[in-house]
């Protein structure tokens, strides 16, 4: 593909706009009407707490079912996303910029003094646009922060499924593609099965909604986490049995650490007396958990996430660094985020945090970092 053709493939079309808006409309409607567990969020600064309808798994399964039926009846093309990947990327990026500019303007004009909608204005336009002004802005009653996270994770799966359909159509379905897709499906389905755990994450609790989160959810997650699938469409990789077994081991270990650590944290926040690994939890300062995975490293969930990211790339072999963009990026991101978390916690907990660091000296990987 020459440069002119490459650049033209990024130009948004009305079809890509309709695909994107149709996807968002579907999520907004079914997210409001389908049954789901109503989960209370964290207590906000003013004592209030938001509630989240966790019906993401049902919404996702319903959407996939509708697409399969539509594809079988020739109403929709299952390769529509993979055929228009680059223009969907640019369309979603433009949408993210427009949405965050609207959020910035609306936030500046807001007089709401509640913890979730009170404007936090630094006076620096770029900073306020990037990090956001309001904690939990809404549109037509929909919590946008929770909505965009859900859209990003579903978008990742839809891109992957369309890539699979494209590989089958082109007779390029390989063992490596199947392995990568299997790991991603398990991970994404697990995310929605435990969707309520998302309500206790730092992004939902403390980060304001600006370009950083909107772009990260709508563009970065679906379009960069799926790079391995795109790469396997054009590159054939033959894996040995030993490589497949090793890849599966990395995925399983990563999944156990990631899911186990997040479950322990979520359960502890709901019930500080809940048993961890069959024993009463050990706590420092009444709030900082030092039992289970959280007694091994202060951010052991990040280790699980990194192992999972690595397992998504290993099916691509080692002939190119391109499929390893995601784990490399995630390593940089999580170290940066871990440093930010450490600074916030040191300021918040003071001497208690120093005691916690002595009890759990390792940040992410024991005996290494």
UniProtKB/TrEMBL annotation:
It comes from the Eukaryota. It is an enzyme of class 1 (oxidoreductase). Belongs to the ERG4/ERG24 family. Keywords: Lipid biosynthesis, Lipid metabolism, Membrane, NADP, Oxidoreductase, Steroid biosynthesis, Steroid metabolism, Sterol biosynthesis, Sterol metabolism, Transmembrane, Transmembrane helix. It comes from Mikania micrantha (bitter vine). It is found in: Membrane. GO terms for cellular component: endoplasmic reticulum membrane. This is Delta(14)-sterol reductase. Its main location: membrane. Its EC number is 1.3.1.70. It is a multi-pass membrane protein. One of its GO terms (molecular function) is Delta14-sterol reductase activity. PANTHER family: DELTA(14)-STEROL REDUCTASE, DELTA(14)-STEROL REDUCTASE TM7SF2. InterPro entries: ERG24_DHCR-like (IPR001171), Sterol_reductase_CS (IPR018083). It holds the Pfam family ERG4_ERG24. The keyword Nucleotide-binding does not apply. The chain crosses the membrane at residues 12-34, 55-73, 85-106, 147-165, 177-197, 209-233, 239-258, 279-296, 308-336. Gene3D superfamilies: 1.20.120.1630. Pathway: Steroid biosynthesis. One of its GO terms (biological process) is sterol biosynthetic process.
């Amino acid at each position: 593909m020459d440069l002119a053709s490459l650049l033209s493939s990024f130009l948004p079309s009305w079809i890509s706009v309709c695909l994107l808006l149709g996807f968002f409309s579907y999520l907004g409607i079914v997210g409001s009407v389908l049954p789901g567990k109503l989960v209370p969020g964290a207590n906000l600064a003013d004592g209030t707490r938001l509630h989240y309808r966790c019906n993401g798994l049902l919404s996702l399964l319903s959407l996939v079912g509708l697409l399969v039926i539509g594809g079988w009846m020739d109403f929709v093309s299952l390769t529509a996303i993979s055929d228009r990947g680059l223009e969907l990327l640019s369309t979603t990026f433009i949408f993210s910029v427009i949405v965050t500019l609207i959020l910035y303007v609306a936030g500046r004009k807001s007089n709401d003094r509640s913890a979730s909608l009170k404007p936090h204005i630094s006076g620096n336009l770029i900073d306020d646009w990037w990090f956001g002004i309001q904690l939990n802005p809404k549109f037509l009653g929909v919590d946008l922060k929770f909505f965009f996270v859900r859209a990003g994770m579903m978008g990742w799966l839809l891109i992957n499924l369309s890539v699979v359909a494209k590989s089958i159509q082109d007779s390029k379905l390989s063992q490596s593609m199947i392995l990568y897709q299997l790991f991603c499906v398990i991970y994404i389905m697990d995310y929605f099965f435990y969707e309520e755990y998302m309500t206790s994450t730092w992004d939902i609790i403390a980060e304001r909604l600006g370009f950083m989160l909107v772009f990260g959810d709508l563009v970065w997650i679906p379009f960069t986490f799926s790079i391995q699938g795109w790469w396997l469409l054009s590159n054939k990789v033959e894996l040995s049995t030993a490589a497949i077994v090793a890849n599966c081991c990395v995925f399983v270990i990563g999944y156990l650490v990631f899911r186990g650590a997040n479950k322990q944290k979520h359960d502890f926040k709901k019930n500080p007396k809940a048993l961890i690994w069959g024993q009463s939890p050990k706590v420092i300062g009444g709030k900082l958990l030092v039992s289970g995975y959280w007694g091994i490293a202060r951010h052991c969930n990040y280790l699980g996430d990194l192992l999972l990211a690595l397992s998504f790339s290993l099916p691509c072999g080692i002939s190119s660094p391109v499929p390893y963009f995601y784990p490399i990026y995630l390593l940089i991101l999580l170290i940066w985020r871990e440093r930010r978390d450490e600074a916030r916690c040191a300021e918040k907990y003071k001497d208690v945090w120093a005691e916690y660091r002595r009890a759990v000296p390792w940040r992410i990987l024991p005996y290494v970092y």
